[in-house]
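General statements about sequence and structure are easier to judge against a single worked case. Part of our work consisted of pairing the sequence of a single chain with a tokenised description of its backbone. The amino acid sequence and the backbone structure tokens for this protein are reproduced below.

***
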Amino acid sequence: MKLLRPGAAGAKQPGGALDAHPETRIVNVQIQTLVADTRAALNSEGELIGDPSTTTPRFELFSAASSICSQKVRAVLAHHRLTYLSHMMNLFEGQTYLPAHVRLRMLGCKQMGTKLVDRHTGSTSVASGGGCDAAVVPTLVDWDAGTVVVDSKRICRHLDEAAVADGARSLRPVHLAAAIDAELDIIDNLPNYQMLSGKPPGEDRRPPTQRGKNGVDFAMGKVERCDRYLAEFADDEVLVRGYTAKRAKELSAAQQLFTEERMQEAYVTAEAACQVLERQLQAAKSEWLLDDRLTMADLCWGIELLRMGNMGADIFWKDDKRPAVAAYAARLRELPAVQSAVVNWPGALFS
């Protein structure tokens, strides 16, 4: 991997003129090639979100409208008013499986030093979910650092640290870091995949576009997509490793996650988390969950509760069942960052 600073012989730019602070920018030629290939595969030049005068933003984000992990990242970007180049990927057309994007993700997984995940626990957490997934979003490129950052929790922290370095107030202040991380772990381990795609126990309250789906067909469609790419790129060692692990992960999801028993467990887990949150909110003496100022825990709970509500799981707190959670969810929904990243983002909510 060759790292070049702008102005060095052979250095290439991510596009356009030099950044406003070229002395801090590290150009990773390998990342540039992979990003260019992914842009070409998507036929996307990207949409600039933020300051329109920025010629080459520090951050470039590949995300999907309805991906809850992407929504968390977009919310942090919006909260800190960070400018970035956005590329939207269609989950249901399999665009996150495009070879160019998988190669980009594989580099991010390597830079993180984490093995590839080959089984599905239902969690979006890299730590507790078993490793890095090469065919999902969000994927963040930090052009100043010359890195590909994967895993939404790591991306959110990375963006927060970058904003703080430029003078912003942290969403994860040091004195609250452990408490915030504990909340993020809870959120990361909630069974969103099952609640989105699997048939819920009892009445199916999901939006019409999701209602009736049992999860198995969705997961097996991913397995079949991996099979096609494995046949097409049988001689490409990097892609074979990525698609093989992803295939195993989704096959385990199809075989294990969507049984009646596992779906019952998923909803019990989600409601139990809401009950714990209710107790915390009732006991809180601060304006927000952990502090008088908004933290990353609040922002991510806002995204999570919005998704639960979208899936009909607001029965966990509606009708005075958990009034503190109900009030918290309503308040978080109105945050400008949540409005920007989800409520007003086309396709972010299911209908």
Residues 176-215+258-343 form a domain with the Glutathione S-transferase Yfyf (Class Pi); Chain A, domain 2 fold (CATH 1.20.1050.10). Confidence is low (pLDDT under 50) at residues 1-22. Strands lie at 3-4, 27-28, 47-49, 59-63, 84-88, 139-142, 147-150.
